[in-house]
Write a structure and sequence with these properties.
Layout lengths: L1 H35 L5 H10 L3 E3 L9 E13 L2 E12 L2 E13 L4 H12 L5 E2 L3 E9 L2 E4 L5 H6 L3 E9 L2 E10 L1
Antiparallel strand pairs: 1-2, 2-3, 3-4, 4-9, 5-6, 6-7, 6-8, 8-9
């Protein structure tokens, strides 16, 4: 009996790992198409979501503290046996309405945090600014069409230029969240 259970566990692990990796690849691909390639720009992200099969949804991620939301849209999609929820917002900083804040957040109920973190790092081409067992945060800007890490001393100038961008990948129990924020003065 013990040998059968061990064999069953080995077989399950053998087939589950590639399936989880493939699902993370597909989830990240959808995230990149809607949030990454658009740099979280609200108009571009909502258009990309519609173009790539996301359905309208009333489900929205929680708002950002200190941001007055001007426009928002929720979308949903099924990817294999995973449910994806996409929230896109455009707002302004409550303390300074000249500062635009764009968010594009994808939540999946199938986890995949380690793979999603690896995929984000491969896409961006640099290490996270901070990381824990359950969170990786990248802070960056765009220079001549290339994304690059931004030091804390560059945050204001990045926001005044092409935009200060933050990508956070979180493990939330059995779920994973990819949260892209762009701040532009």
């Amino acid at each position: 009996m013990l040998i059968r259970l061990s064999l069953a566990a080995v077989l399950l692990a053998t087939f589950a790992a590639p399936a989880a990796a493939a699902q993370a690849d597909d989830t990240f691909k959808d995230f990149k198409l809607v949030c990454g390639d658009t740099r979280a720009d609200y108009a571009a992200a909502t258009a990309a979501a519609a173009q790539h099969g996301w359905q309208t949804s009333d489900v929205m991620a929680g708002g950002m503290p200190g941001v007055t939301v001007i426009e928002k849209q929720g979308r949903k999609k099924t990817l294999g046996d995973a449910s994806l929820v996409l929230s896109m917002t455009h707002g302004t900083a409550a303390k300074d309405p000249s500062v635009n804040v764009f968010t594009c957040t994808l939540q999946t109920d199938r986890g995949g945090y380690p793979q999603l973190k690896e995929l984000a790092q491969a896409w961006l081409g640099f290490d996270p600014a901070s990381t824990t067992e359950a969170t990786a945060t990248y802070r960056f800007t765009e220079e001549n069409g290339t994304l690059r890490a931004a030091a804390a001393s560059e945050f204001d100038s990045a926001a005044a230029g092409t935009g200060m961008q933050i990508l956070t990948i979180k493990r939330d129990g059995g779920n994973a969240i990819l949260d892209y924020v762009k701040i532009k003065k």
